[in-house]
Amino acid sequence: MSFSYNDYEDSFTNLPIYLYNIQRANPHSYTYIKTNVMDRFELCFVAIRCVINAFIGCMLPVIFISSVPVAIDGNNNTTSIAFGVGVANSVNSYTWFLMRLKDAIGAGTEVVLITNMGDTIASCIGQVFPDAYHGYSSNSVLNYCQLRIGQSRNLDYLFFRVCKAYITQDFKQTFSKLSHGAQEVLHNIGHMKWARAYFPNIRWNVLNIKIPEFLMVLSVSQHNVPIITLMDVIVQHIQQTFAERCVMGDMNRHTCSCGKWRSLGITCGHALVAAPDMVQIYYRGDVFRTTYHTRNMNVVPPPSEWEIPKPLSAVLIPM
Length: 319
What we know:
The longest helix is centred in the C-terminal third of the chain and has 18 residues, at 227-244. 39% of the residues lie in helices and 13% in strands. Mean pLDDT is 82; it is low at 273-278. The chain is an alpha+beta fold. The protein has helices at residues 8-13, 15-25, 49-58, 91-105, 125-128, 138-149, 155-164, 168-175, 180-189, 213-220, 227-244, 260-264, 285-293, and strands at residues 30-35, 41-47, 62-65, 69-72, 78-80, 83-86, 112-115, 133-136, 249-250, 255-256. The strands form three sheets. Strands 5-4-3-7-8 form a five-stranded mixed β-sheet. Strands 1-2-6 form a three-stranded antiparallel β-sheet, with helices on both faces. A two-stranded antiparallel sheet has the order 9-10. The chain folds into two domains: 8-132 and 211-305, no CATH class; 138-207, no CATH class. A hairpin with a 4-residue loop joins strand 9 (249-250) and strand 10. It has 13 helices and ten strands.
């Protein structure tokens, strides 16, 4: 049986089949579709099982959510741990998405959630993750402050000195140098939301997480693209990310698959490991290797090899 992979309208009809075959290729992955009472498409959610396992077992328990939920490993590499496509950016849409994300990572998983100030999704965090720490990215806090008081001399420099201070004494000393207007705005936000000196331990010192440029482009240029085409591009990007971060080294032969050790005669970064007894588990070399080495993400077969689930849900093009 042939499937229309790149036709805009037919891609919604075939979306349940595509998601079913993601499940076949990657068992125990999370795929959901939300339709209205007329079976018109509204939202879908995908989280690949091996990526979720890597996040829960090996990555920092911090998720930055903007256009997609992004996590970081112990080497500051960013990875999209799930993604969704929807018709409208609304409180209801984001709440549904967060509920599916909570299903994927497990309701009992302790996690930190970071958003940009003013994003619609920021207002939904407390409803779905009432016990989780929710902070703001430092860049968005600075932008908000600038909008409220205007650009002033040394605001950027002083703000980031305040933001990055490790102890409250240094924080207060630099905070006092800000204008009264800036101090008032930042105080009303709440220091725990953005200042390192007041972070709870579980924020893991994360000020910002940079979303991969590729995913940011998709988030603003997805209109009129068949939904299966869009989703398959994202799936392939995640798969490529895991493949690129898996290198093989031989400490006895002084070789690494990246080629730098052999070419330069100097140990490459992949072969350098920190003292395991002095760092958190997320920064250890063996944990970093486990993140990407043993968690293969299987390719979704071409449409000609798709298996049709029974019963098949009806999904129509959104109005």
